[in-house]
Amino acid sequence: MQDTAEVKAQESPQINPVPSKNGKPVLIEPDLDFIQLLSKSGGDLFKKCMQCGTCSATCAISPDSNPFPRKEMAWAAWGMKDRLLSDPDVWLCYQCNDCSTRCPRGAKPGDLLAAVRQESVIHYAFPRFLGRWVSQPQSLLLLLGIPMALLALALYLKDPIENALGLSRPMGDGIIYSYTSMYPHWLLNSFFMIICFLALIIVIVGVGRFWQGLKKADIQNGIGSPSNGLFSSIWVTLKDVITHKNFTECTKTRSRYLTHMCVFFGFIALAVVSFWTVTARITPIIQSDFIYPFSFWSPWKLLANAGGLALIVGLMWMIWERVKEQDDAPVSSYFDWTLIGTLLLVTLTGFITELLHYIRLEPHRHLAYFAHLVFACSLLMYLPYSKFAHLVYRTTAMVYSEYTGRNGNKPNKPGITEDNHEEAKDNAE
């Protein structure tokens, strides 16, 4: 009987009282499924953590008050799903890998936090099953088939819609009207505006859930009211996002600052050109003659090409850093590769479409354009569920941390450097 009881005790989750921040005991009910999800997402070494604190001391952006990622490593081992998914510190990490390379046990805290971020996107997504689909390789063909079918349906219905609404389509030769016969400008604008509007609504719902989760966790842990203004917090955060200031604090993978800057500003350039193209005829702030498609020497075409080249350089650099064999490199999950691959396909098919257009290769340029539209639609449609959503959730967490005064507790020292790493490691051991 005693042996049977011992076996059952080992199999069932243990409920352990531990002190919370406000001194009150809490009951921990380990979520074993969540632990398995974190392990599958690339953070499977977190159980090796011995709570030495080297990771928190190493991180140059970890605040003095409740520094990360030491506490997150403990919460993951205990299966504290709700606490991790409502923790803004998870999003303040940029996975520069300083903590992982200096961990004396090889527990890779950076990979664990990346896995938690992936699960957070899925948890707050609406509907949630789409978030799970986007993170699973077996759903790839289905996810590509959805935008392909929607775009094909829109193209199939273009003639009936034009006849019903009495729309006239400009006809002509050369550059100006090269795609209008098959891809009318009004149709593509309407199609992508609907996709963007739906994606925006879903993002707002997810961010709202996330913000409420952050507030609820603070209330449960006895944290007081906000200490800074919301709008001032947003302004400070936007400056940090644009300058990528925190990326410069990394010592192990400093090159990630340059790759992210290339991708970030390259994408912004393409987004600006796309916004101008779609809204030029309906936006009061745009006061100029609008002709689309743009000629090769148009400032908008030059900006788009420069942005596309910056994206390709940044993405190829990212791919090289991820595939080269390094034992201390961060884990690259399917979640990471999906975003990199989609961005790269959108950019490459855009350049291929442009090239085939100028050499007038039929029907290849139309097929290339269709592929480009499918990948662009996929990028926007699945934004709330992919790693692309990091841009939104990370910004939200940064705003919340500034809003609650948490960012005012950052350390004055730059963290552990290569020179004092060995001394810190010996102290931890």
Helix and strand element order: HEEHHHHHHHHHHHHHHHHHH
Could you tell me the mean pLDDT?
80
Q: What is the rounded distance between the termini?
A: 41 Å
Range of helix content: 55-70%
Q: Total number of β-strand segments?
A: 2
- Could you tell me the strand content as a percent range? under 5%
Sheet/helix structural class: mainly alpha
Question: What sort of overall outline do the alpha carbons produce when their principal axes are compared?
Answer: elongated
The number of helical segments is 19
Task: Flag low-confidence runs.
Answer: 1-19, 172-177, 412-429
Radius of gyration: 25 Å
Q: What's the domain count?
A: 2
User: Order of strands across the widest beta sheet?
Assistant: 1-2
Largest sheet: 2 strands, antiparallel
Q: How is this structure best described in words?
A:
61% of the residues lie in helices and 2% in strands. It has two domains: 12-125, Alpha-helical ferredoxin (Fumarate Reductase Iron-sulfur Protein, Chain B, domain 2, Orthogonal Bundle); 128-408, no CATH class. Helix 16 (334-358) runs antiparallel to helix 17 (364-381). The two termini are 41 Å apart. By secondary structure, it is mostly helical. Residues 1-19, 172-177 and 412-429 have low confidence and may be disordered. It has helices at residues 2-11, 32-43, 54-58, 70-78, 81-85, 89-92, 98-102, 109-124, 128-134, 140-156, 158-165, 185-220, 230-243, 255-279, 299-323, 334-358, 364-381, 390-403, 421-428; strands spanning 16-19, 25-28.
